[in-house]
User: What shape does this take?
Amino acid sequence: MKILVAVKQVAALDEDFVIGADGRDVDAEFLIRDLNEWDDFSLEEAVRIKEAAADPVEVVVVSIGPEEADEVLRKCLAKGADRAVRIWDEAVAGSDPIAIARILAAVARQEAPDMLLAGVQSSDHGFASTGIATAGFLGWPHGAVVASLAYTSGEKSAVFRRELEGGLLHQVTIQCPAVLTIQAGINTPRYASLRSIKQAAAKPIDVRNLADVGISAHEVGEQGSLSHVRRMYIPDKGHAQLIEGSAAEQAKRLAGIIRAFKGEA
Ligand code: AMP
Assistant: This one.
């Protein structure tokens, strides 16, 4: 049995930062990279299913990203993943979440897992769509924002719970293979031991390019994406002022402000 876990290397802002020259992202120099918080929970969920299983279960982590994403894949290997796959090609840069999902679906077709886990969202871009879009490409059933999961390796279905409004719960049975997006807090992710970190450093990472997964360059990147970031910016701060005085004075002052705003004398 196999569980595929999609993990993203996300960027957090350093204390001070500047927007890059193209005006569409933070300058890479000012970003601190790490494993997406939600993906830590879905990896832990997969490793727990493996540890509870009577039969062997393989946990495979997959990330679409440049070489630096190896760091998060090694972290996942240290936390219990058996194998790590990284997909990259220069043409992937600028992909929207749907194009990323197209690649994840291609990897899922190759790996043929019994279950694909993704995070509900990524902490840097927060599209909250990649996992569900991957299910769409695969034609697999999906469950979003999973807050608890009961899945025994080898079973043809899983039962999960979603928290709804007003304290209500949805308990759902889903046929496998399925895509589940895992909510933060579903478990307590483990820390990797020093020993496992050292072992993970020596493990190979299976790097594949677009051709290896049967995707062509025009299906990804800017040209394969239907949404494009136009610019990233810090909005102007609003202004506030306290109007003091009697009611009549305040009304007069307010009327003056409105006239000035409308460009009247
Ligand atoms: P998002 O749709 O960007 O909010 O991300 C939701 C989830 O999709 C993440 O928690 C990951 O499981 C997965 N995901 C997004 N981007 C990538 C990526 N580049 N590589 C692997 N998985 C990804």
In short: The mean pLDDT is 95. Residues 37-52 form the longest helix (16 residues).
